[in-house]
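Lab notebook, bench 4. Continuing the backlog of folding jobs that were queued last week. Each job is logged with the same field layout so the records can be merged later without manual cleanup. Today's entry covers Glycoside hydrolase family 78 protein, a 681-residue chain. Filled in by technician R.K.

JOB TYPE: sequence-to-structure
TARGET: Glycoside hydrolase family 78 protein
LENGTH: 681
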Amino acid sequence: MAAMHVLFWFSTCFLLLNSATALQCWKNTTCSGPTDAAFPGPWEANIFAPASRTVSPVSILSKSGEFISKFLGISQLSGNGSGLVFDFGIEVGGLVTLHYSTTGQGSIGLAFTESKNWIGEWSDSSNGGFKGPDGAIYSAFNNSGTYSYTMPNLRLRGGFRYLTLFLITNGTTTVDITDIKLEISFQPTWSNLKAYQGYFHSSDELLNRIWYSGAYTLQTNAVPVNTGRQVPFVAKGWANNGTLGPGDSIIVDGAKRDRAVWPGDMGIAVPSTFVSIGDLGSVKNALQVMYNYQNPTTGAFPEAGPPLLQLGSDTYHMWTMIGTYNYILYSNDTTFLHENWAKYLLAMKFIYGKVGSSGLLNVTGLRDWARWQTGFNGSEPNMILYRTLLTGADLSIWAGDTSNLNVTWHTRAESLKTAINQYCWDPSYGAFKDNATATTLHPQDANSMSILFDVVDTSAKAENISSNLLKNWTPIGAVAPELPGNISPFISSFEIQAHFAIGQTARALDLIRRSWGWYINNPLGTESTVIEGYLENGTFGYRSSRGYAYDSSYVSNSHGWSSGPTSALTEFIVGLSVTSPAGGTWKLAPQFGDLRFAEAGFMTSLGKFQASWNLRRDGYSLTYNVPRGTTGEIVLRCLSVGKFPSITIDGRPVSREANPQLDGPVILLNGVGGSHTIVVR
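JOB STATUS: finished
OUTPUT FIELD FOLLOWS
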């Protein structure tokens, strides 16, 4: 009877999307998300998100993972140990409800996994990987009859593709599974999971799929605030009932785990969120929880939010500060900025207080992403500090600060840049060392960031770094020397942007196709999201090569820190980005690579921003539509060396004599709001 009450509750809370009387959102959250896509079009076919918050498996596999049939209704388990694997086809997450009838007594076990590698009667690892297996949960039945079972809220499974059902019985009991329904828990304030506020489309279908896999990953990472991983971790099984922060929805690092706010991850996840799904409310809540748990005496931010609440990371401290800049840039939420400005100033005082007489940051909060060497004058944290100072300078203006912090922080940034190039540059190799020591390690993270954050002091250095980064490449991605044997799509997200930033378009696209293309086409993965990391031998044992205690199934196959191509393809290939809060000013600087056309768009509080380009036999056309009253910089590439092109804007010729910037390999134009077409021949 209790099970029937549960089903009735679900039927009233989770209405079908085509209902004309109510919106459907997760449990008791407010349906505050968008109801329609901002840019409807054929590209919506690439969205992995389902059309309803209630979904069923698409196919049935054997216990060994072999395809049996499509999921059409009744499936049978017969005898002790019998089992079937139900494939949802994509990453999903939430609470499963089973309807079944039996001929005797026993239990049905439910086990979950993201990767096909781990399907079986034990779920893949999500509880911390150190104390015991996740195992399975069970629906018991005492005699023959008809039953329904809904997973308890505590056992919500945040991320999985495969559901294994297996029978435990002493006799010859048969179970007929008559229905399987999953109520999706992520993106809890959205009634329509396909209501993307951004889009991307190009002539390369692989790149399109990669862009949307990053976007869908970010949806699975926007979770109800009362569904964090329980800390301390349970001894066996799993528990997702931890409080993560304020509001109804919050962005976390992964769907399956850790299900906590990690500001370093947000350095990649937030820009990609902005250009795709547009869920800045979840971003705001994630940042606010970091301010709420700031050390009021020292100014230090936690490395991770509650309930994990991990401390002791200088780099993640700075990523909270950079994340604040990104959020204000995309939202123009000056109320949030003013409410937290005093805490931001304390955070800057804390981190800059660690700059020593050499002019370099001396790292004492040693925790970082998975890299295995940290501390002292590490080049990576110094690159991040440079970015922190520059973004802080902009924030001081946006906050209306009158104490000249903009000048002070710019001056400190320039001094830091000089020190980094003096002490960390290795001229014999042509890249930055891992530290201001005699080390021979030239890391992927610091060198990628040095270009992207403009720390390099000459263009020749940037080109050398870009070339030397290729030495880390394998057929399936770039190995990070600072985490030997491992490929990190998180750090590679910075690398692809670095290549784009200096016009090495072919290199950036090559790395996207190698790494993200390899995973999206891997039949052992989710084929819908982006993975936390993997080994250079092509297995999903990320970090296991460094002697970590957890098993390989602990790897997250839906991790927002790996979504870099989603923002990069919009901001570099289409070339559209905002340069002041909510896009009051913007930039349009397309790169073509080997593509024939590309287009993208996103929303801000000012309205729609959209751009597209098409290559022609005699040049290219570039169309953009941005809110009136905004202004921007347009960067046009010359397709022929030494030949000045013919340029028209809305059919009117652009005079070279009247525009002194019309010279060199790129052409700079001042852009204005509205809808315009530029043709370059």
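OBSERVATION: The chain has three domains: 2-31+50-184, 198-233+250-572, 575-680.
SIGNED: R.K.
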